[in-house]
Amino acid sequence: MSTKIESNKVTINADQSTVFTFLTDFNNIKLLLPQEKISDWSATTDQCSFKIQNAAIIPLVKESVHPSTKINITSGEKAPFPFKLEVFIEAIEGSDTCLAYFNFEGEINAFLKMMVVKPLTNLFNYMADRLQSVHAD
């Protein structure tokens, strides 16, 4: 069963290409995560992995990029279930700001879905908010 979660859309005080460059280096993803809830962090520019408190290890792998507008991320080998995570970055015409949000789609069984939808929704909203604050002037 496919589960879809979309984060809040946030306006970022940086241009589209700056945000895209920041997000395509997976070392920077750590800055978007709740530090008190993650451990076992490791990263390269194209993948990262971390353990969420009281949960599984989450491996993220950069699958493809659409320059300045979209990053496709897929679950790594040890993920608890297969998923895709898309990051959308939209220019706001006539300004040096952009809009960004995360779109998650995972194959989660019904039992697990009840336990993970709310924490995942909170995580993606947190990441969007952090992305906004990392680029705040």
Structure description:
This protein has 137 residues and is α+β, with helices and mostly antiparallel strands. The chain has one domain: 2-Layer Sandwich (Alpha-D-Glucose-1,6-Bisphosphate, Chain A, domain 4), CATH 3.30.530.20. The protein has 2 helices and 8 strands, in the order ββαββββββα. It has helices at 16-24, 110-134, and strands spanning 2-6, 10-12, 38-43, 47-52, 57-66, 70-75, 83-91, 98-107. Strands 1, 2, 3, 4, 5, 6, 7 and 8 form an 8-stranded antiparallel β-sheet that branches. A hairpin with a 6-residue loop joins β7 and β8. The radius of gyration is 14 Å and the shape is globular. The N and C termini lie far apart (42 Å).
What topology does this entry show?
Elements: E1 2-6, E2 10-12, H1 16-24, E3 38-43, E4 47-52, E5 57-66, E6 70-75, E7 83-91, E8 98-107, H2 110-134
Q: Report the mean per-residue pLDDT as an integer.
A: 95
Shape: globular
**Please, how many helices?**
2
Strand residues, percent: 35-45%
User: Briefly, what CATH class?
Assistant: Alpha Beta
CATH fold name: Alpha-D-Glucose-1,6-Bisphosphate, Chain A, domain 4
The main pleated sheet reads as:
8 strands, antiparallel
Order of helices and strands: EEHEEEEEEH
Number of domains: 1
Name given to the CATH architecture: 2-Layer Sandwich
Rg on CA atoms, Å: 14 Å
Q: Ends: how far apart?
A: 42 Å
Look at the structure and name the CATH superfamily.
Answer: START domain
Q: List how many beta strands DSSP finds.
A: 8
Structural class: alpha+beta
Considering DSSP H and I runs of 4 or more, what fraction of the residues is helical? 10-25%
Low-confidence blocks of residues? none
